[in-house]
Amino acid sequence: SILGSCSFILAGQPLKVAMQCGFSLAQIGEFAFIIAGLGVSLGVTSSRLYPIVVAVSVITTFLTPYMIRLSAPVHTWVDNRLPAKWKQMLNRYAGGADTTVASHRSCWRQYLISMGRMMVVYSILSVAMIALMLYGVVPLLGQVLPAGVLPYVGCVLTLMLLSLFLRAIVMKKNHSIEFRALWESAYNRLPLVALIIIRVIFALVMVGYVISYYFTLSVGMVLVLALAVMAGMVLSRNIKQHSINIERTFLQNLRQRDIQEEHMGHKKPQYAGHLLSRDIHLSDIQVPENSLWCGRTLMELSLGHRFGINVSSILRGKRRLNIPNGKDVLYPGDVLQVIGSDEQLENFVRQLNEQVYQEDENLEEHEMKLRQFILTEKSEFCGKTIVQSGIRDKYHCMVVGLEQGDETLRAPNPQTALQVGDVLWLVGEVQNIQQLTKSMAED
Q1: Reported confidence tier of residue 265, pLDDT bands at 50, 70, 90
Q2: SS (HEC) of the chain
Q3: CA angle, corner 42, sides to 40 and 48, nearest 5?
Q4: Are 234 and 167 in contact (CB under 8 A)?
Q5: Distance between CA 285 and CA 67 in Å, rounded?
Q6: Band of the pLDDT at 26, cuts 50, 70, 90?
Q7: How far apart, in whole angstroms, are the C-alpha atoms of residue 294 and residue 115?
Q8: Distance CA 323, CA 337 (A)
Q9: How far apart are CA 375 and CA 220, in angstroms?
Q10: Cut 0.70: pTM above it
Q11: What is the distance between the alpha carbons of residues 202 and 432, in angstroms, rounded to a whole number?
């Protein structure tokens, strides 16, 4: 009854409610029969325990209604004798606990989920490590080590490997963002300390089991050695560093596929889910190949000022540009990861799709032709190099071949001087070729 009442007080219940609940939990039920019977059948408990459990169960079941009835007068008796400061502290803690739990409900939920997940993973690893060492490695070492040395070597090796996981069980999440946010309130400190104590006890049980497996010692001696080993685990910087490296490597290997998919844009980044509660979304938008925005920098486009959106990343083939600056240029086919509201994203996509090159209706005029010209004495190109002739800049044509004298057709050198009788092979649009032909005819 006392332990049950203290547990409910710790949970933030008023003294009266805590005592009523604690007194109603004083009995043991039929499940105790199963545990006692199993212990006797396996030979781990004495045969005298079973009738004692049955007797205690019958007695406590009979006394339970009276215990519940006595909870009220016992509370009155305790309340009259408690110091005023104690009663104020309990009332303040019980009242503040409700407010604190409501205001920190989200932090508590995140902290308990992350800590529970961590406890499950490291507990499984710890149990697996103990089983591997006790029933796999140590028997093999027994074939090469003397019997007197084997317990010490086996115990040290087991505890060294186990320390990498037990230290994480005890210390991990004690400096997390959720823990610090909850610790700011005085009403959260007692439950947080209780959770740490539970984790320490769990680790001590693990260490104590390993020590008791190798050596026959009293319970007190095992507890002292377990405390000493735990203190060494917590204070050791080497164990801390190795534990962090193992966890980091494991998480990197575990999330390698997700990281690769995020990098390639096949999967949304983790932070995208946190934006939904604020009506902000992360959307992947591809730049059209015929967009007028291609070749322009983000500073020139001023997307944030015009549309209120933010470009968090640019995906370009197998390359990813995170947090691009104003000097980054957009290219056709780029995938922009844009953050904004539904209205902002809709406006941005509409403008992006509208700002494109229109299809040319006069396709025939832009057809490329190959023409051959012979330079005459009246040609304006004689005596000039290909660069100086202005064939590319003025007439928008390209010299792709040159025949001089008895030479065969060859690729032209831009610095080659053109002479009378040279044969130029030009490529250009029909309209530009016609203009060049007309110019040479006039000459």
Answers
A1: low
A2: CHHHHHHHHHCCCCHHHHHHHHHHCCCCCCHHHHHHHHHHHHCCCCCCHHHHHHHHHHHHHHHHHHHHHHHHHHHHHHHHHCCHHHHHHHHHHHHHHHHHHHHCHHHHHHHHHHHHHHHHHHHHHHHHHHHHHHHHHHHHHCCCCCCCCHHHHHHHHHHHHHHHHHHHHHHCCCCCHHHHHHHCCHHHHHHHHHHHHHHHHHHHHHHHHHHHHHCCCCHHHHHHHHHHHHHHHHHCHHHHHHHHHHHHHHHHHHCHHHHHHHHHCCCCCCCHHHHHHHCCEEEEEECCCCECCCCCEHHHHCHHHHHCCEEEEEEECCEEEECCCCCCECCCCCEEEEEECHHHHHHHHHHHHHCECCCCCCHHHHCEEEEEEECCCCCCCCCCEHHHHCCCCCCCCEEEEEECCCCCCECCCCCCECCCCCEEEEEEEHHHHHHHHHHHHHC
A3: 15
A4: yes
A5: 69
A6: confident
A7: 48
A8: 10
A9: 110
A10: no
A11: 86
Pull the structure tokens for residue 346: 């809709």
CB 335 within 8 A of CB 285: yes
CA angle 223, 227, 229 (to 5 degrees): 115
For residue 94, pLDDT over 80 is answered with no
Tokens in use for 230? Answer: 């735990």
Tokens, residue 147: 């019997």
Token look-up 């016609």 returns: 434
Of 333, 301, 340, the C-alpha closest to 319 is 333
Lowest mean pLDDT among 11-25, 177-191, 287-301, 342-356: 177-191
